[in-house]
From TrEMBL:
One of its GO terms (biological process) is transmembrane transport. It comes from Roseibium alexandrii. This is Spermidine/putrescine transport system permease protein PotB. InterPro entries: MetI-like, MetI-like_sf. It is found in: Cell membrane.
Amino acid sequence: MSVEARERRQPWILLSPALTAITLLLFIPLLFIVVYSFWLRTATGADLAGFYLDNWSEALSDPFYRDILLSTLRIAAITTAVCAMMGYPAAYFIARSRGNKALLLLLLMLPFWISYIIRTMSWINILGVSGAVNWTLVNLGLVSEPIQMLYNETTVILGLVHFLLPFMVLNVYVALEGIDISLEDAACSLGSTRWQAFREVTLPLSLPGLAAGGLLCFVLSAGTYITPLVLGGPTDAMFANLVFEAIITQLNWPLGSALSLMLLAVLGALVLIYNHYLGMGQLMKGLG
């Protein structure tokens, strides 16, 4: 074998473990889901193998699924907007801190040491009828009886923000950390106020990090099912809950596969649009 041939093969040899893992853990299971989506669930409960479009026809034409999908995207958009408004000031504060960045970043990462499910269920002890907030309000005499604050769309968004806010802060922090602070000083020396320097210099340069955090928050919130399952009411189900219901409760794998691919297509299109305009490099920085 020639030297040139060995050099051409060397990158693929080095990548082979990662490519093997991705193939076995991602592409092959996804292929099974695609195949399942064209099978048919019979009245006897058995799955009929073949190429049937019944599941796709039901998923794409039924207004129930369309409305739940639109509601899911709306909740994800609201969650992302709230995370951006709350996360940007926090990230800016950490990036501009002078001596305690490591401690602040450690505090930011602490929630990841606790299970997502436990963090979500903790809101029941905070906002429940016998939770901390109601106990305080009743004992202070502000209300005569406990207020029902759980099991609605607002608490679902609250739980999602609680879960996703660190992701937004980390992505914005990475972008702000890469901006030379002397640029703001230079703008101020040319007559700008601190607010003008931030608006004209820092904010535009940090927008890729804000967009990366927004994409991450949107995709993760649109694909979650634990938060609406724990904190939402009967009318607050999100699209992932429909997939869970179809596969786990009804054991209808073909329909659940079609619904999951439907959600994957919508979120995948969003990722492709982001990658076309901004690229995935900033997102990888935030995840790293």
